[in-house]
Amino acid sequence: MQTSAGRALALICYEGVFAQDVNAAPERPDYLVLITNDAWFGSYSGPYQHLVQAQLRAAEQGLPMVRVANTGITAVIDPYGQIRDSLALNTSGYLDARLPAPLPPTLYSGTGDWPAALVAAFLLGVSVLPRLRLKRRRTLA
After folding, report:
1. Does the pTM exceed 0.85?
2. What is the CATH number of the domain that holds 10?
3. Residues 92, 19, 127, CA angle at the centre, nearest 5°?
4. For residues 62 and 2, what is the distance between their CA atoms, to the nearest angstrom?
């Protein structure tokens, strides 16, 4: 979606939780817009966890985010994942905040989960190797 502020990638509610949805965009946007209804979370930890997940998306992509929540926490998040301005939980109002500039593409935005999956596979292999050697020694003895 092209706006006067640049290209935005609109995310609806839980699309902001899954990194693969953000990485699947055909072009890198200039910023992220997350529109959500956090009413079903209640007023305990859910809205705060959802906000932290939005901060993680912004930081891993190196993109600022505008998070709009009708009953949750509305916030402008910089590309480092820091909240620049916000409205508290269950607060009506609006924000008039400057949208931070995006950072260059991050390593994660280019590779996704592949490096972590490769490290996990390597560690799994390394942890199984001693057992295979022990089993082989027993067979040979």
Report:
1. no
2. 3.60.110.10
3. 135
4. 19
In the chain, the number of structural domains is: 2
Per the structure, the complete domain to which residue 122 belongs is given by 112-141
Q: DSSP character for 62?
A: T
- E strand intervals along the chain: 2-3, 6-12, 31-36, 65-69, 74-77, 83-87
Rg (Cα) of the chain, in Å, rounded?
21
- Residues counted in the chain: 141
What does the pLDDT profile of the chain (141 residues) look like in tens digits?
666 778 999 999 888 888 887 888 888 999 999 999 887 777 788 889 999 999 999 999 999 999 999 888 999 999 999 999 999 998 889 999 999 999 999 988 888 888 888 999 999 888 887 776 666 666 665
- Which pLDDT score, from 0 to 100, does residue 3 have? 64
